[in-house]
From TrEMBL:
Gene Ontology CC terms, in alphabetical order: mitochondrion
Domain of life: Eukaryota
Protein name as annotated: Pentacotripeptide-repeat region of PRORP domain-containing protein
InterPro entries: PPR_P_subfamily, PPR_rpt, TPR-like_helical_dom_sf
Pfam family, one: PPR
Keywords linked to the UniProt accession: Repeat
GO MF assignments: mRNA binding
PPR repeats: 44-78, 150-184, 224-258, 402-436, 437-471
Lineage, top ranks: Eukaryota, Viridiplantae, Streptophyta, Embryophyta, Tracheophyta
Family named by the database record: Belongs to the PPR family. P subfamily.
One of the GO BP terms on file: mitochondrial RNA processing
Protein species of origin: Cucumis sativus
């Protein structure tokens, strides 16, 4: 396509031009052409970031590497997030060694902060089960000038150790944090607490709880309630009901800083002598933590989201009802967690009602909530209903469907063999300047071939290629086989090849 270049080119203008291109290769050509057309023009950090993002998302790793090298040679000031994205791109294409090399060459770039990049690489190494390499990276690089905080990186290491059943070692790392000149946050305590409880190290878990009382819980933080539940439930599962109730009292007094008049006590005799099940006792503990502490939005939100994540929808609803009764408005995070929980349980129709619940609650449903519900509907074979909600989104002010929305619908329609409708959704997606990923194209083209829609398949193949993407080998095979099955398709097959 022809580009109307401005009389004077600015970096902001160039960013807008290259973002409008459907083909990443065209965007890259314009990026390079800019300096030739305007000798006095110089790229800045945001332009480089835009170009790297476009190339990385389209899988053009070699071109992305060229732009990174050019940014280094220009000594252009850039943000930490650019390197974090590049390393994720390398890793997703099986080029983790290139990502490590990029990190080691960080000093040659004009960037003073590498905390996010460091944590990104550390997280990738741990996900790849390269614990030794991750520890070596931490020892060699975490003390440099570019890493501003080590709390998140230590959290990542402790989480990896706990997942491997090495909570004792994770606890040792936790205890060394003070000597590392960094301080544990709420997530640090939660990671280690869960690890110790899962490994049955309840004595260490109790001591960890007491250390919270004089550190992060001195002001009675409501968000700590999830950590308390973890320990109390572990004690119940281990049959130590009395100790759980005793510790609950200390949590109410010292952790949640609740006044005596607000304490909601559990009857110890009832726990000892009745036929209550463990789940019923846990339910009582949940009520005690909610009603016994000082009401706060943080505590209600933390408890509700935790219950929904555990697929305990009924108990989560009780917390939300109590939250509303106390005058707090549930945040979007609660509705999203509830919808996700219902979809996991296969209660998609109930998940749909969550959207209406949020509207009645005085909040505009978020795109994240819609995407959760749409995915649940499509996975349940109800893409027709999902399409109706896409239309509703278009009528709602401030709510715009994104790439995830369209991709979910295309895949959902394809799962039900409704390929023509999927074509319409994909067409709308392209018109709104969202670039479908290769998997979306591959799924639709292969499906169109399976139902003999040769023309539509070739059309989307051409669109895919125009965006600088290549179909999978199996898609080529499906297309050629489908076209060669009838005489009319042979000429078309020759043209495509």
């Amino acid at each position: 396509m022809s580009i109307r270049w401005p009389r004077i080119l600015t970096p902001t203008c160039l960013s807008q031009i290259i973002r409008k291109q459907n083909n990443p290769q065209t965007a890259y050509q314009l990026f390079k052409e800019a300096k030739c057309r305007y000798p006095d023009y110089r790229h800045n950090g945001p332009v480089y970031a835009t170009m790297i993002n476009i190339l990385g998302n389209s899988g053009r790793v070699s071109e992305m590497r060229e732009v990174m090298d050019q940014m280094r040679d220009d000594s252009c000031e850039c943000k930490d997030s650019v390197f974090s994205f590049a390393i994720k791109t390398y890793a997703s294409h099986g080029l983790l060694e290139d990502g490590i090399s990029l990190f080691k060459s960080f000093g040659r770039f004009n960037c003073t902060n590498r905390t996010q990049t460091f944590n990104t690489l550390l997280e990738i190494l741990l996900k790849e089960s390269q614990l030794h390499a991750a520890c070596q990276l931490f020892q060699e690089c975490s003390y440099g000038w570019g890493v501003k905080s080590r709390t998140q990186s230590l959290n990542l290491l402790m989480q990896s150790l706990c997942q491997r059943g090495q909570s004792e070692l994770a606890l040792h790392v936790f205890q060394e944090m003070d000597y590392q000149s960094c301080y544990p946050n709420r997530l640090s305590y939660l990671i280690v607490m869960k690890g110790l409880c899962q490994d049955g190290r309840l004595n260490e878990a109790i001591h960890l709880l007491y250390s919270m009382f004089w550190r992060i819980s001195r002001k009675g933080g409501g968000g700590d309630i999830v950590i308390y539940r973890t320990l109390l439930f572990a004690l119940c599962d281990n049959g130590e009901i009395e100790q759980a109730v005793e510790i609950l009292g200390k949590i109410l007094r010292k952790g949640l800083k609740a006044p005596k008049r607000a304490h909601y006590r559990i009857d110890l005799d009832q726990c000892r002598n009745s036929n209550l099940t463990i789940e019923e006792i846990k339910s009582l503990i949940n009520e005690a933590l909610i009603k016994g502490g000082i009401p706060s939005s943080d505590s209600y939100c933390a408890m509700a989201v935790d219950l929904y994540n555990e697929n305990k929808t009924d108990q989560g609803d009780k917390v939300v009802s109590h939250m509303i009764a106390k005058g707090f408005r549930p945040p979007s995070l609660i509705y999203e967690a509830k919808a996700a929980s219902l979809c996991k349980e296969g209660k998609v129709d109930d998940a749909v009602k969550v959207i209406e619940e949020q509207i009645v609650g005085g909040c505009v449903p978020t795109i994240a909530l819609y995407n959760i519900v749409l995915k649940g509907l499509c996975d349940d074979g109800k893409s027709t209903v999902a399409m109706e909600y896409l239309k509703k989104m278009a009528k709602q002010v401030g709510l715009v469907a994104n790439k995830e929305t369209y991709s979910t619908l295309v895949h959902g329609l394809c799962l039900e063999n409704r390929y023509i409708e999927a074509c319409k959704v994909l067409e709308e997606m392209v018109i709104k300047s969202f670039c479908p990923c290769s998997n979306t194209f591959n799924t639709l083209i292969k499906g169109l071939c399976s139902v003999g829609k040769h023309y539509e398949a070739v059309m989307w193949l051409e669109e895919m290629i125009s965006q600088g993407q290549l179909p999978h080998v199996c898609v080529w095979n499906s297309l050629v086989s489908s076209l060669c099955c009838d005489v009319a398709g042979i000429d078309m097959c020759s043209r495509v090849l």
